[in-house]
Amino acid sequence: MGNIKQSFLAGLFSIFTIALLTVLTYKTELGIFLLASFGSSMVLLYGYPESPFAQPKNVFFGHFATTLVGLFFLHFIPLPIFVIIPLAVGFGVGLMILLNVTHPPAGGNPIIVIIGSVSFDYLLSPVITGSILIIIFSIVINRFILKKNYPSKK
């Protein structure tokens, strides 16, 4: 029965969080708050918040680092797309592990950045602003609604 409750609540709060980001993106002039990999972040933030990969430091810096790597490869490495995508993903994954900020959903950010051919503004919006919002929502929901010890004190 616990698994049914966990899955229901994870799905419900994922809907809530992504809905808020979607409304901010499409119904206001405040900017872009959605990043495809945030959908994967929901799995960790609401399904497995005790995971080290779900901790705020990892969520924020994982998304930040891999997006920065993707932007670097997109704008400064003049190689074909089929070469820079795997290089950027590999460097992004390696950087997250090196910096101890691993957040698996962020591993896809270089692909999103390169395929989307985005500008450096993408780092601010949606990556920084969206990451901060999903972290705030996950802290409020996990700590105050679900009564979980999040972020963990490890």
Largest sheet: none
Query: Per the principal axes of the C-alpha atoms, what is the gross shape?
Result: globular
Strand content: under 5%
Instruction: Compute the number of structural domains.
Output: 1
**How many beta strands in the DSSP annotation?**
0
Number of helical elements = 6
Average pLDDT across residues? 96
| Gap from first CA to last CA | 28 Å
Q: Classify the helix fraction into a percent range.
A: over 70%
The low-confidence parts are: none
Alpha-beta content class: mainly alpha
Computed CA radius of gyration, to the nearest angstrom: 16 Å
Give the SSE string.
HHHHHH
Would you kindly provide a written description of the structure presented here, covering whatever features stand out?
The longest helix is centred in the N-terminal third of the chain and has 25 residues, at 2-26. The chain is globular. The chain has 154 residues and is mainly α. It has six helices and no strands. The protein has one domain (2-145).
List the helices and strands and how they pair.
Blueprint: H1 2-26, H2 36-47, H3 56-76, H4 81-99, H5 109-116, H6 121-145
Structure summarized in a few sentences:
With 154 residues, the protein is mainly alpha-helical.
Labels describing this entry:
0% strand; mainly alpha; globular; 6 helices; 154 residues
